[in-house]
Amino acid sequence: MADVARLAGVSHMTVSRVLNNHTAVREETRRRVLAAIKELGYQPNTAARALATRRSGVIGVLTIDTTLYGPAGTLYAVENAARRAGFSLTITSIKTVDPRSAAEGLDRLTSQAVEGIVVIAPSSQIGQALSPLHHRVPMVTAGDALAGDVPAVYVDQAGGARLATNHLLEHGAERIWHIAGPRSWLHAQARARGWRSALKAAGLQSPGVLYGDWTPASGYRAGLLLVEKIQEVDAVFVANDQMALGVLRAFHEHGIRVPRDVLLVGFDDIPEAAYFAPPLTTIRQDFAAVGEHAIRLLISEISGEAAQNSYVVPAQLIVRQSSIRRSH
């Protein structure tokens, strides 16, 4: 650190303030110190800094072991937001979604002296492990509200489902089926709830729910079941885009044309959705906003400030060809 101070022409204390993101440093001085750090390739000794300041500069993340678009997108957004705020991350993934695994994962994080924890695990079973620990370490959930006393940031899943269902209703569909995600996932529960509420508001009965596991293969299997009763299907709202891809494959194999015969809407707006055949109408989630607000809430908790209990990010309908039946 002394070499950095000498090259930048500042005091040892000023370098320390820059490293700790202290506000009492002029922007010109901050740039000069950062340039010196880069030129010298200086790496701060985080362990020593933690001992001196009782601040580790590390945020822990508990997440599930998955490559699914929603949790993976949320993790990426949280990491970017934490980095911009001057924190690094340590991540613990759990393979089994249950209270015991969650408690073990949280214990691993707290043993690393993290300043706070972000939980990205969209299952109702995880919430049981959070409340007992929240009084000991600042904590926020990102993606779902898992425990009543833990601040949460999440996309309005039910609202997104209502957008999707109302869009199909506006385009003439009445018998709108739903292919849901796993029953234990809060996202799946909320999307099914939003679908039902939109149909109820329109005075319509829910024709039926089929369940998948978020994969294209499960969507394909559900699509084959719908093929058998296609005369009872005007449209399908699918709880994620990967399962919608499987539905498209099943329909295509049996000569069912989307959108001419059946309208289709997914959820997530994965990068490939615009290149499905036909391009998929879907619901977009603003993961960047989730990550930004989650880190902001956590920093407020770390600082001892009163933080709002939750922040809900609106979902957005992205209209493409799969839900628009052209007149001939």
Structure description:
The chain has helices spanning 2-8, 12-19, 27-40, 46-53, 69-84, 99-110, 127-134, 157-170, 186-201, 216-227, 241-253, 287-302; strands at 58-64, 88-94, 116-120, 139-142, 152-155, 176-180, 209-211, 235-238, 263-265, 282-284, 310-313, 316-318. Helix content is 44%, strand content 16%. The relative contact order is 0.12. The chain has three domains: 2-44, 434 Repressor (Amino-terminal Domain) (Orthogonal Bundle), CATH 1.10.260; 56-155 and 286-313, Response regulator (Rossmann fold); 157-285 and 317-323, Rossmann fold (3-Layer(aba) Sandwich), CATH 3.40.50. It has twelve helices and twelve strands. The strands form three sheets. It has a six-stranded parallel β-sheet, sandwiched between helices. Strands 7-6-8-9 form a four-stranded parallel β-sheet, with helices on both faces. The radius of gyration is 24 Å and the shape is elongated. It is α/β, with parallel strands linked by helices and 328 residues long. InterPro entries: HTH_LacI, LacI/GalR-like_sensor, Lambda_DNA-bd_dom_sf, Peripla_BP_I. This is Transcriptional regulator, LacI family. GO terms for molecular function: DNA-binding transcription factor activity; transcription cis-regulatory region binding.
